[in-house]
Each structure stands twice: as structure tokens, then as C-alpha cells.
């Protein structure tokens, strides 16, 4: 019994270390991550950059057809598939205001990985800490796209169904 109690006490004392986390931080020059020596990967990374900057950051959704196919398969459970479905989600559901002067990408991108016809963008996100009121923590979000002829044709992210 003493061994069990000692083990439980040791685990309890060590438990904060089990939950220690290094902060997730964005790259100092995120646009530099959207380049590749391979011409197809470079084209796809550049399209992902435009999606991140002009669409997701600046909400220039009237330009979406430049980087997204009409068929766009959406795996985020909050937005419909198709070009019009994703445009509707950001313009009518999220009601994000358009920014005309877009400038540089300000999203805290951690890394960009391209393989075959896929591009994955990892992003630092900060959230309120659910166990420590007034504190925040960082974690990693991702957006992944499959590209066809330089346009995003399918999308994945870790989104869950939004509460109403």
C-alpha cells in the first residue's frame, strides 16, 4: 500500500510537467515558406498563399475563383462544398469585412509542407485557457488543400461543428 501511495504522490507532483507546453509561434517571414524549387509545388504553395492572404486574411471573396475550383470539396463541417458554398460561409455566415489593401500575410504561419498535389499550412492559434481563467495557451491549427491545375479543389481542417 505504501508503494502505491508513494507512486500516486509522485505522479501527482509530476503531473504539471506532463502538461507543460512550449508555445507555438509563427515564422518571422511567413510568405517565405510558400516557395518551392519544384514548379508544381511552388504553384500550389503560391495558390495557398493567396488563399491565406487575399481570402482568409483580407476577405476578398469576390476573387475566390482565382484560387478555388467550382467543385471545391469542403471537409469543414460548417461550410458547404463548392466555390459558392465557401464564399457564402465567409461572406454571409461569418460576415467578415473585406480589406482592400491586403499587404503582407500577417497570419502566424508555423510551416508549409507540399507533397504531390497537397499543401498543408500549419498556423499558431491562441485560445483562452479553460482551466486557468485569464490565461491563454497556444496550439496548432492546420489547413490542407489538394490542388488541381493550380487551384484548391479539396480542403481539410480540424474544425468542429459550431454551436448556435
Explain what this protein looks like in three dimensions.
This protein has 164 residues and is an alpha+beta fold. 29% of the residues lie in helices and 27% in strands. The chain is built from three helices and five strands. The chain has helices spanning 2-18, 39-57, 83-93, and strands spanning 68-74, 109-115, 118-128, 136-148, 151-156. Strand 3 and strand 4 (136-148) form a beta hairpin. It is globular. The relative contact order is 0.18.
Protein traits:
164 residues; alpha+beta; five-stranded mixed β-sheet
Strand order of the largest sheet: 1-5-4-3-2
Provide the gyration radius in Å. 20 Å
The number of distinct helices, counting runs of at least 4 residues, comes to 3
Coarse morphology:
globular
Structural class assignment: alpha+beta
**Strand content range:** 25-35%
**H/E element string?**
HHEHEEEE
Largest sheet: 5 strands, mixed
Pick out the low-confidence regions: none
Q: Which range best describes the helical content: under 10%, 10-25%, 25-40%, 40-55%, 55-70% or over 70%?
A: 25-40%
**First and last CA, distance:** 50 Å
User: Can you count the beta strands?
Assistant: 5
Mean pLDDT: 91
SSE map:
Layout: H1 2-18, H2 39-57, E1 68-74, H3 83-93, E2 109-115, E3 118-128, E4 136-148, E5 151-156
Parallel strand pairs: 1-5
Antiparallel strand pairs: 2-3, 3-4, 4-5
Offer a concise description of the structure.
The chain has 164 residues and is an alpha+beta fold.
Amino acid at each position: 500500500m505504501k508503494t502505491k501511495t508513494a507512486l500516486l504522490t509522485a505522479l501527482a507532483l509530476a503531473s504539471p510537467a506532463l502538461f507543460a507546453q512550449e508555445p507555438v509561434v509563427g515564422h518571422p517571414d511567413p510568405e517565405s515558406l510558400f516557395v518551392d524549387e519544384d514548379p508544381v509545388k511552388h504553384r500550389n504553395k503560391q495558390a495557398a498563399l493567396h488563399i491565406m492572404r487575399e481570402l482568409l486574411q483580407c476577405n476578398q471573396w469576390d476573387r475566390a475563383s482565382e484560387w478555388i475550383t467550382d467543385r471545391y470539396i469542403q471537409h469543414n463541417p460548417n461550410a458547404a462544398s463548392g466555390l459558392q458554398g465557401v464564399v457564402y460561409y465567409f461572406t454571409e455566415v461569418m460576415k467578415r469585412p473585406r480589406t482592400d489593401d491586403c499587404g503582407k500575410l500577417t497570419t502566424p504561419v508555423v510551416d508549409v509542407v507540399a507533397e504531390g498535389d497537397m499543401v498543408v499550412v500549419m498556423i499558431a492559434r491562441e485560445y483562452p485557457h479553460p482551466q486557468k481563467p485569464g490565461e491563454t495557451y497556444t496550439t496548432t491549427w492546420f489547413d490542407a488543400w489538394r490542388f488541381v491545375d493550380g487551384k484548391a479543389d479539396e480542403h481539410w481542417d480540424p474544425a468542429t461543428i459550431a454551436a448556435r
